[in-house]
């Protein structure tokens, strides 16, 4: 903390206690290979770039006037691509913001919201921010979510599928067990990485009135810099999210983001080709790392979670960093011998493998 406690007397008491989320670093090192924040190694569709440029050239008022607070054209594009009705779509400034609204709308209950002990580290931050009761449920010894643990009393459930940072996915049959066991609570499936090989629970939305699925354009659509996330659910849940959003920031998606995200959802072919490339590169990287003695958890994401029985993970991360390669290391119980490595292009992955072989192991 950079302020003395004397200056902090101006802060609201609860803000003095906050432990904010720490994003993966975005360092400015030359020839850096950034495999630490699960961004996509490929650019977005060329149609996205053209759509952003067209915003200014087609509309002299584009900057002067507010954007559509409802982002209707974006909701239409998402509804079409996801095969749901427009009143089943909610959009926000990155899925982080969508998650915040989900916490506010559904999870402030007397009973604790349940999520895994090893999962996306923003959930504990929101739990504190919104003063939500929480209970962390340990993953099993294979780092899998055991859905039979999610039948106890709760104020809501979060399942990250595939989970992060473990990369392991659950099947829809498992998700359905959780939905059926908790008919009076909202079950949130955070699908930030679903497009890299897992099954989406959007297919279940019309069957389950307690299901909210959250996705992002940051990973599979190469739009992390744009900040567009969305939720799909039955309309009674979307209405609650809209009430929260319109009590906080009514214009979360700017004109450039709306235009770019619409173009991305309209270019399904590019999207599918890019996802397939990442999946193929992942399988290749997993086999190269396995040949070097790593143990890699079965991944359905655009990253892998790997450990080496003979090498300390913190040291490996440090040695890679000295060679200009950044991977994510979490100094946390149970996972402090693992590295989370984002899938790069084949050339980038080869640089990682060559560096490990010749300079590190
Ligand atoms: C599981 C999970 N959910 C949500 C997010 C947030 O993504 P964004 O805010 O970029 O949409 C991330 C980002 O890394 C994530 O890993």
From TrEMBL:
Instruction: Name the UniProt key words of this record, in alphabetical order.
Output: Amino-acid biosynthesis, Aminotransferase, Histidine biosynthesis, Pyridoxal phosphate, Transferase
Is Nucleotide-binding given among the entry's keywords?
no
Query: What's one GO MF term for it?
Result: pyridoxal phosphate binding
**Family indicated by similarity:** Belongs to the class-II pyridoxal-phosphate-dependent aminotransferase family. Histidinol-phosphate aminotransferase subfamily.
Describe the reaction catalysed, as an equation: L-histidinol phosphate + 2-oxoglutarate = 3-(imidazol-4-yl)-2-oxopropyl phosphate + L-glutamate
Q: In which pathway does it act?
A: Amino-acid biosynthesis; L-histidine biosynthesis; L-histidine from 5-phospho-alpha-D-ribose 1-diphosphate: step 7/9
Name the Pfam families on file.
Aminotran_1_2
Q: Which PANTHER family does the record match to this protein?
A: HISTIDINOL-PHOSPHATE AMINOTRANSFERASE (PTHR43643:SF3), HISTIDINOL-PHOSPHATE AMINOTRANSFERASE 2 (PTHR43643)
Its protein name is Histidinol-phosphate aminotransferase
Q: Give start and end of each Aminotransferase class I/classII large domain.
A: 31-356
Q: Which cofactor does it need?
A: pyridoxal 5'-phosphate
Tell me which EC number(s) this protein carries. 2.6.1.9
* Highest taxon of the lineage: Bacteria
Q: Please list the GO biological process terms of this entry.
A: L-histidine biosynthetic process
Q: Which gene encodes it?
A: hisC
| Higher taxonomy | Bacteria, Pseudomonadati, Pseudomonadota, Gammaproteobacteria, Moraxellales
């Amino acid at each position: 903390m950079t302020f003395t406690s004397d200056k902090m007397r101006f802060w609201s008491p609860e803000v003095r206690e906050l432990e904010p989320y720490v994003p993966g670093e975005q360092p400015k090192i030359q020839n850096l290979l950034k495999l630490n924040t699960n961004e996509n190694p490929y650019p977005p569709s060329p149609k996205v770039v053209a759509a952003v440029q067209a915003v200014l050239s087609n509309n002299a008022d584009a900057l002067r006037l507010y954007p559509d607070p409802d982002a209707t054209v974006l909701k239409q594009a998402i509804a079409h691509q996801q095969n749901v009705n427009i009143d089943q779509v909610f959009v926000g400034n990155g899925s982080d913001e969508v998650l915040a609204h989900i916490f506010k709308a559904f999870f402030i209950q007397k009973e604790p919201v349940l999520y895994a002990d090893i999962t996306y580290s923003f959930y504990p931050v929101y739990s504190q921010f919104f003063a939500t009761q929480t209970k962390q449920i340990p993953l099993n010894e294979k780092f899998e979510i055991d859905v039979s643990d999610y039948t106890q009393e709760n104020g809501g459930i979060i399942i990250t599928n595939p989970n992060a940072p473990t990369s392991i996915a659950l099947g829809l049959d498992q998700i359905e067990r959780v939905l059926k066991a908790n008919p009076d609570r909202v079950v949130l499936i955070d699908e930030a990485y679903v497009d890299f090989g897992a099954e989406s629970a959007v297919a279940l939305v019309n069957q389950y009135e307690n299901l909210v699925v959250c996705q992002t354009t940051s990973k599979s659509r190469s739009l992390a810099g744009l900040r567009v996330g969305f939720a799909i659910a039955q309309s009674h849940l979307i209405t609650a999210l809209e009430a929260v959003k319109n009590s906080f920031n009514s214009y979360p998606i700017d004109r450039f983001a709306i235009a770019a995200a619409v173009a991305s959802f309209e270019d399904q072919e590019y999207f599918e080709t890019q996802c397939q490339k990442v999946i193929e590169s992942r399988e290749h990287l997993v086999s190269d790392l396995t040949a070097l003695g790593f143990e890699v958890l079965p991944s359905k994401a655009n990253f892998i979670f790997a450990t080496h029985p003979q090498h300390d993970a913190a040291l490996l991360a440090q040695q890679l960093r000295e060679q200009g390669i950044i991977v994510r290391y979490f100094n946390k119980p149970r996972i402090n011998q693992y590295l989370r490595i984002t899938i790069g292009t084949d050339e980038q992955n080869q640089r990682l493998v060559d560096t490990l072989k010749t300079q590190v192991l």
